[in-house]
Design brief:
With 361 residues, the protein is α/β, with parallel strands linked by helices. The chain has two domains: 202 residues, Class I glutamine amidotransferase (GATase) domain (Rossmann fold); 102 residues, Orthogonal Bundle (Arc Repressor Mutant, subunit A). It is built from 16 helices and eight strands.
């Protein structure tokens, strides 16, 4: 009886994302939203570097005052942000935090008018706080949060020029004087955008744990002492160059031998590990096998050749490591969703040969 094939358990699914809703009003400071999303993306990158494909992650969603996700075509601001950050969460995702940017308003009466126009958002803040969600505000965005009626007795950080007017409107809310940011229960507030990274770190601590928050804190904030120490250690050659990883060695070899027949033992030898270890690294870090990754590299080359050359499909198959054109067609369709001939018809950058001219007239 032939031996049964080795069983490789499917990788565990990563934990669900911690989602933050970001209401965008016509008066919202879009730069706050951009900066905050960039900080969340940095936190995700750091988490993945430490924990691999199974790392928890922060997510975000652009919404209106009622909490409805903004479609890309709902205005220039939403279109810009959606194009820049296309990976926002879908409509059905349950948010666990609310981030309110500061408002473009000329003075305190104008801020009051904005808050009155968007009372639906203040009501939503109240619902979110009642559900135990986190609330984050920047600058005068605190007016919208305070109108929820759920923050009496809490402390908040505001720019000095808003403190007196805010105190008149909300006498039961206290001020964290002399502090750039404040955390009081579910409410995280900062006076100015320059302290946004502190809000992001505090939210990461709440959502992903102390260890990842500490990593973010060491990376996101300026640390001149560490910079000087790193330069000194580098000058004295105490910090060596980063060594190649197992995955990097394997991928480099595959890219250099794209048209060679696939051999797991040969690839493992190039990566200086056993085949079993190589399979484990690819599964843990990329959630796919080395062969699947190689098919992706080969199809990327095939797309380029279909776009810019007039080579036949069998010739392209050979150049991409497939001896059987039929197998190439099946794999290419699986990875791109269309046959090679259809892909060429849609994406070719070369004119058909019959249109070529020897010289321009």
């Amino acid at each position: 009886m032939p031996p049964s094939p080795a069983f490789s358990p499917a990788p565990a699914a990563p934990p669900p994302a911690f989602c933050v809703d970001i209401p965008l009003l016509p008066e919202s400071a879009a730069g706050n939203a951009l900066q905050f999303i960039d900080l969340l993306r940095s936190a995700n990158l750091l988490a993945r570097l430490r924990l691999g494909a199974q790392a928890p992650r922060m997510a975000w969603r652009l919404v209106d005052a009622q909490g409805t996700p903004l479609p890309p075509g709902s205005g220039p601001l939403a279109s810009c942000l959606a194009a820049y950050f296309p990976e926002q969460e879908p409509a059905g995702t349950l948010a666990q935090a609310l981030f309110i940017p500061s408002l473009h308003a000329t003075d305190i009466p104008a801020i009051r008018a904005v808050a009155a126009r968007h009372s639906a958002l203040s009501r939503r803040v109240g619902v979110a706080l009642d559900a135990g969600h986190q609330l984050l505000t920047v600058g005068n965005g605190a007016w919208l949060a305070a109108h929820s009626g759920r923050l009496n007795g809490c402390h908040a950080s505001l720019p000095w020029f808003y403190v007196a007017g805010f105190k008149r409107d909300f006498p039961a809310i206290h001020h964290s004087l002399g502090r750039d940011w404040s955390e009081d229960g579910p409410w995280l507030s900062c006076a100015l955008p320059q302290s946004l990274h502190l809000l992001a770190i505090a939210l990461v601590r709440h959502a992903l744990g102390d260890a990842l928050a500490a990593t973010c804190e060491s990376v996101m904030g300026p640390d001149h002492q560490r910079a000087r120490a790193a330069l000194q250690a580098n000058a004295q050659q105490h910090i060596p160059a980063t060594r190649d990883s197992t995955l990097a060695r394997a991928i480099d070899w595959m890219e250099a031998h794209l048209d060679a027949p696939y051999s797991l033992p040969r690839l493992a030898e190039a990566a200086a590990v056993s085949p079993r270890t190589l399979l484990r690294h690819f599964q843990q870090e990329l959630s796919q096998s080395p062969l699947d990754y190689l098919h992706g590299l080969r199809c990327a080359r095939a797309r380029v050749m279909l776009e810019v050359t007039l080579e036949s499909v069998p010739s392209i198959a050979t150049a991409c490591g497939y001896a059987d054109p039929a197998a190439f067609r099946r794999i290419f369709a699986r990875y791109t969703g269309m046959a090679p001939s259809e892909y060429r018809q849609r994406h070719a950058l070369r004119a058909p040969r019959r249109r070529w001219r020897v010289e321009m007239k």
